[in-house]
Amino acid sequence: MSDTPRNTAEYEQALGSADAQLAEFEGPKRTLLGHVQHFLHSHPTMVPVIVLALSLVVFGILAGERFFTPFNLSLILQQVSIIGILAAAQSLIILTAGIDLSVAAIMVLMSVVSGKLAITLGVPPSLAIMASFTLGTLAGMLNGLLVTRLRLPPFIVTLGTWNIFFALSLWLSGAQSIRSQDIDQMAPLLKFFGNSFRVGGANITYGSILMVLVFATLWYLLNKTAWGRHVYAVGDDKDAAELAGIRTDRMLISVYALAGFICALAAWASIGRVGSISPQSFYEGNLQSITAVVIGGISLFGGRGSIMGALFGALIVGVFQSGLRLAGVDVLWQVFAIGWLIIIAVAIDQWIRKVSA
Fold this sequence. Notes:
Elements: H1 3-16, H2 32-42, H3 46-63, H4 70-95, H5 103-120, H6 125-149, H7 154-173, H8 180-186, E1 196-199, E2 202-205, H9 206-224, H10 226-236, H11 238-243, H12 248-274, H13 285-295, H14 307-326, H15 331-353
Antiparallel strand pairs: 1-2
């Protein structure tokens, strides 16, 4: 017992002379490339923004002054408006780690439905449009139900419904187009989004305005509401989202239903853009919408990316096509260039995903 005070004093003396600095663990220092990688991981929309800016500069040089005329820039907006709206619908599905091969087929089917009701059956155009909205939403909901209830991969489900909706379009229309003159005479409201107004030398269509409004609305829903946070959570890790209390099946059904509604909006806009209704139009719209989403930096693995990236992706495709056309490049090589653009975009996405969260 007599040694206890002495031991205590020695312990306190040793403790007082010990180094009080906390241990520090330093990770490897980031290189400049590492900083760029981390920045792009935190701001995925910057990739398509940078690509779009570079594309404008390059094609402005190659194509000359004609490229930057207000008319040509507004023409690019017109040309990408329909694919842009489809890309907005596609983005919702891809953010949940799915994919929808039926978006263009739903759009074409809804245009045929509205045209059939308004032109052939004499239904008031406003009611025909509302019917197409309802059926488009139900078509998207069907995709969602098949994915969630039957536990089938979205790729397989929408590949099947793509063919189903395409066949229904041919059956309802009798494989015949509805002429522009008939629409003008009996249901001019169906061409509403083909109307335009001039701003300086630019010719802005209502369809272009609709595309911007769709993206703005979806940006708000995905970034400012609980529903949007749940979309990202389901896409990032569905099992973890379920453990957190999110009703993932209901969430997925709502996403597919909203995508179907947006496709119906695109159907109305497409009638104004094309001027007629054909069951075989926009046959490549599914792949073109995926192209815009991928180039826009939205990850095909779900849970990462901004809806605005899809808008920039659609604009990049439009800029490439317009710039190459004005530069005198053959259409074949335009498709060739877009193909490489897709591969490079996916490679960049894979590189960015290597950054640990």
